[in-house]
């Protein structure tokens, strides 16, 4: 049915490519293009013969708009799924605009030299995408992504207004290393070492990194420490969910991870300021990435589950109402199915589903849109079908 260009060939892309190949009726032709073509060739070789999807590969520098335009013009996809790094969002959006090609990503733009992520840069493309008649779907991973779809679904079917949302991201997986990150270490450490913040009564409340801690008893996982972080979907949900008074985001971290992170911070290893080392400029955080385990190597070692979901409090027919929608995913089952751990799986599956929504025309809204702006129903059905079944309860434990 459709042709998709996938940019990037890391942990998340590997899962999305496996899932596209399971879904050949929608994705009958995909091209995998990344900085290191050998990685694209390796996954093509692994999957060819197991799928009806036609696979091709290419080398591309996703930071170079002209190179991207040339690739899009020669391959002629209907949509581009950006699974490279947040630094490349704008160059890929520029190329999509120039070629009138739909765009999907999983993380908002972040300048490489400033650890700051926000939607303003991508929202600035709204009019141009609308005029070009192409859709940009922002944040089609799990968080952002499924958390926005859960919010739109809760609003559509269960609430007249939602006043409070707590997004809870629990990874109870154990990979056996004292310290490793479950997705790109550079992006992950930039995110968790930044100041925290939450949205309340129309404004942002800022906290010190990891200042707010809660303990939560996650269904099917158990009791875990979780910490308040800033997270990108807070920004779009604050605008798109009417009646909202407060949105917070919590992520679980084990004590070993936090102790290592503090130590690395204290010695300057998480800094993004370049330093001179033996006459050469290096960025400490990029050097740290090079010595840490590659997240895509964690798959065979990781045991345990993730539980990610949203607690909603609001009103229906004048009565206060609570709801918790969540997904539980098992690291070992993910590895058996696609050769990756659950953090890559819970991002790669929604990335495939977002691309499917756009390619099939179920979601066709020229302009630049966050995921909660679309009809959540077909996406929720697809989550059940493609490996991320969700559960719903109206008696959740609340977070104080
Ligand atoms: P990886 O580092 O594993 O993969 C990134 C890929 O992008 C690599 O293949 C890399 O190439 C490629 N790449 C980097 N720079 C360029 C460039 N200039 N040109 C072409 N290709 C490039 O990252 P992940 O798979 O862990 O993460 C992918 C994305 O998913 C990130 O944006 C991350 O923030 C996002 N994410 C979103 C989540 C969500 O729930 N919404 C959760 C987790 C991640 P090479 O192989 O040569 O290094």
What's the helical proportion of residues? 25-40%
Shape: globular
Instruction: Point out poorly predicted stretches.
Output: none
**Assigned CATH architecture of the domain at 146-340:** 2-Layer Sandwich
- The proportion of residues in beta strands is 25-35%
CATH class of the domain at 146-340: Alpha Beta
Total number of strands: 18
SS summary, helix count: 14
Q: Between the first and last Cα atoms, what is the distance in angstroms?
A: 48 Å
- Class from secondary-structure proportions: alpha/beta
* Average pLDDT figure: 96
Notes on the protein architecture:
It is a single chain. Strands 7, 8, 9, 10, 11, 12, 15, 16 and 18 form a 9-stranded mixed beta sheet that branches. The chain has a domain at 146-340: Dihydrodipicolinate Reductase, domain 2 (2-Layer Sandwich). The mean pLDDT is 96. It is globular. It contains 14 helices and 18 strands. By secondary structure, the protein is an alpha/beta fold. Helix 13 crosses helix 14. It starts with a strand and ends in a 7-residue tail after the last strand. It binds NADPH dihydro-nicotinamide-adenine-dinucleotide phosphate. The site of NADPH dihydro-nicotinamide-adenine-dinucleotide phosphate has 32 residues, from helix 1.
